[in-house]
Amino acid sequence: MTRRRSTMKIATLVSAAGLLVACGSAATPPESVLSQDGAVLPDTATLNGVMVMHHAADAFERAPKWSLDPKPVVVFSGGDNTDFDLESVLAPVLLADQRLIARSRSGMARLVLFKSNGTPDRVLARAGQGPGDLAGPTEPLWIGGDSVIVLDGSTHRLSRFTADDGYAGSTRIGDNLNIFCFTPIGMTSDRHAAFLDGCTGPGDIQAKAVRSGRVVALAPLSFERFDSLAAIAGAEFIEIETRYGGRKNVTHVLLRLGLRGTAAAWGDQIATSDSGSHYGIDIWNLDGKVSARIRVDISRRAVTAAMRDAVIAKELAAISGPGEGRMVDANESRRQARENPFADSLPPFERLRGGSDGLLWAVDPHTFVDSNWTATAFNTDGAIVGRLTSIVPGLPVWFGRDQVLVREEDADGVVRFVLYKMKHENP
After folding, report:
1. Alpha carbons 155 and 292: distance in angstroms, whole number
2. Which distant-in-sequence residues (6+ apart) come within 8 Å of 332 by Cβ?
3. How far apart are CA 297 and CA 174, in angstroms?
């Protein structure tokens, strides 16, 4: 297997690689076909050398229905110990023995270990610049057993930690890479770390509406190089007028509830979606070529007035917080919160996740007005093996065999991670 070696800064590769161009699909929408175990099989066709796995609009309705047992298996919480505050934690690592490793950007504890009963155990790394310390860490990436690696944008180091022994050494990595942009998206089956770079801004600042770019990058665990595997469209930006201090200016901001690019390592492949106008997932081989596409003929959810009002209320509450006095112009920030544009429709996906169960999980978009969330499990043959609906609040961050880890936040902003058991029901 060969890969195109990257000698450029990862964030600059979007323009060179180009954005994805979706291929056509079968002219006649398929009919959903159920396999013997209830999974919905796609209609398949090869177009321009790419296997297109196409589902009808009723596929989600006909798929096996899964739910969560509301009784938690484990609740991971920092309790009253501020050293273990989980507020800034987005994607912790759940080990096979149900211990949890979480990265924090606040406080002195930068990497912490939780016991399998959910209580804090010990600090694996503290804030600092020395060996074993972390200053500007990415989320941890599981590399097998009880081991994780963490990239540090401030020190340009990659550090390895184990749950049992703590710090296990560091490696210096490229000074020309903006590591703060890197989001780990999993390990491939050939032992390469996969990341999604998201620091590329609007490509055409003259356009009123434009997509940014995101690059999927792979690195061997030695981290002697990063290879750019794929480029996808990223976030939607929209042109607005600002009036800070009474001075008018034109700039681009994120379109609220707009499209986002997402990706996940999935076995020996990478799954991506640029969250375009249709529900589509591209499956990339590790040589940088699209080998398959999954399509589902469903419409995107319309953005409602209630969704917009909830976002505005959240933004206004943040402006009125403790930092209001340090703002350049709080009133202008409030005006933008009330007036900045929203998308007309939600993205097809919140995110993609490669599950430890070998399935690809596509999480539906979730807004502040939604009391539940849903996710779809795809097999490698494109079959929809289940639709998971949860009545518990929060956002799923990890999928395993019959288990899901959910990030939950209460009205006071206190975050906890809860492991639930999945229940399979007959379709």
Report:
1. 39
2. 242, 243, 244, 245
3. 43
- Give the residue from 336, 412, 319, 424 showing the smallest Cα distance to 85: 412
Residue 226's pLDDT band (cuts 50, 70, 90)? confident
The DSSP result for 175-214, as a single string, is TTS-GGGEEEEEE-TTSEEEEEE-----S-TTSSEEEEEE
Helix (H), strand (E), coil (C) string for 314-355: HHHHHHCCCCHHHCCCHHHHHHHHHHCCECCECCCCCEEEEC
> Three-class SS of residue 82?
helix
The model's pLDDT over 98-127, given as tens digits with 9 standing for 90+, comes to 999 999 876 777 899 999 999 999 999 999
pLDDT, residue 318, reads 87
Amino acid letter, 364: D
H or E segment at 269?
strand 269-273
pTM of the model: 0.86
SS3 content of the chain, % helix, strand, coil (to 5): 10, 45, 45
Position 95, amino acid: L
